[in-house]
Structures are given as C-alpha cells and as structure tokens.
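User: Some background: our group keeps a shared notebook of sequences we're curious about, and every so often someone picks one and asks for a predicted structure to add to the entry. Today it's my turn. The entry only has the sequence so far, pasted here. Could you supply the structure so I can complete it?
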Amino acid sequence: MTQATSRGAGVEAKAGVRAQTLDRALDVLDILADGRARSSQELAAATGLHRSIVYRILRTLEDRELVRRTGEGRYTMGLGLLVLTRSLLGETQAQLHDVLGELANTVCATAFFAVPRGDQVVTLVTVEPDRDRMGVAAYRPWARAPLDRGACGLAIQSARPARPDERPEVGWARQTGYVRTVGELHAGLTELAAPVRLAEGTIGCVAVVFVGGDIGEDKAADAVRRTARRLTQAPEEVWEL
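Assistant: Of course. Here's the predicted structure to add to the notebook entry:
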C-alpha cells in the first residue's frame, strides 16, 4: 500500500466519527506546513484524494486566506493563519523566546523548543545567541525532523514509557536527563536536548545545536537540563498550546 493510499484509507476510516471535509482540509494544511509549495496534483497524491476534491478544499482555504497561490500556480500556507494563531502563541512564544534567549547566550549556540507531531518533531521557537556566532539555518520555526533521529526526538521519547525497540540513547537519557547526537540530522552538527513535561501530560523538548568543538559540551548539557526543568515548572498558562 502506498503512502498516499494509506493516508486516504485512514481518512475514510475516520469519516464515521469526524467531519470528513474538515478532516481532509486539515490533512492538506498539515502537508503544506513544511513550507514547500505544491500543486493541487501533488496534494492529491499526498492525501490520496481525487484532485477535484483537493481543488475544492484549496478554493475554500484560499477564500479564507489560509492558503495562497504562488505565481507558478502552486499552493502554500497563507497569511490568514497568522490571524488564527496570534492570540494562541503570542504571549507563550514571547516567554519561550526569553527563556531560550538566556540558554542561547549561556551556551553560545542556537537554542530551540520543539514538540512532537505524529512521528515527527516540529520546531516552534528558535533563538540565536547575541554574541558573534553564526546561526544554524536548518533549525528554524516549523522545521520538522523524524522522532526517531536527532537528540530532540530521542529526548521526547525518554519522557515516555520504555519500549523494547527504543534506541539505547533513550534509556540513557532517562538516567542523565539529556540526549547528545552528532550528525544525525545535519552533518557536522551536535545536538543536545532535554525533555520538557508540559500541561496535561504532553511532552516537549528544549535543545541547542552547534558545530562540534565550538563550545564546552558539559556546560551546555547542564544549561539545557536547567532550562528544561525551568520550563517544566513554568506556570500552567504558559503551556495552553
């Protein structure tokens, strides 16, 4: 079964208990969330839906400015999403930015906060240090990575119940409070991450990423763990995401 067919079958299975059209529209938005513009045909293939259905969804989303067409006729996320998310993320994002800014300047490395979404990890906030360090362009808001690769995904797994097929680094993180990986997502980059326990039992991750050898990793690991504890203990309203 292809990925598109599997996804389409999943949509059909959910139809009896959910609003099918809305579910399909959210699938389209979820695919576009990686920032890459796509044609209606590509979106139809990715969702497993007929192109005419996808076209109607896109027209509705475009009317609401949730998607927009590029000059080449492809589709990408629209500015209307900013209106919907402003009140939800505004204050929370500002508080996260302040905390991550302290971490970035303490370690002299790019700091970021991410959450799991399905089998991926999605970066929500990224902060560069004030001092003379080059930022890591691969880690920008809404960037995605596999949950089973990279320190951030493994750190999130370490806050969940143990599984027999999990990587050894996950068990080690339960003992040390953080995960270190080198070059798993991007060649030459070291990533240190620690889990953050959010409201209602959900899990996030705080991490730093840098070129290996540029900073003292013991100090960086301590700073990441302290920041994770600080965010875990933050007032509950901060995590009403």
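Suggested note for the entry: DSSP finds eight helices and eight strands in the chain. Residues 92 and 237 are 8 Å apart (CA to CA).
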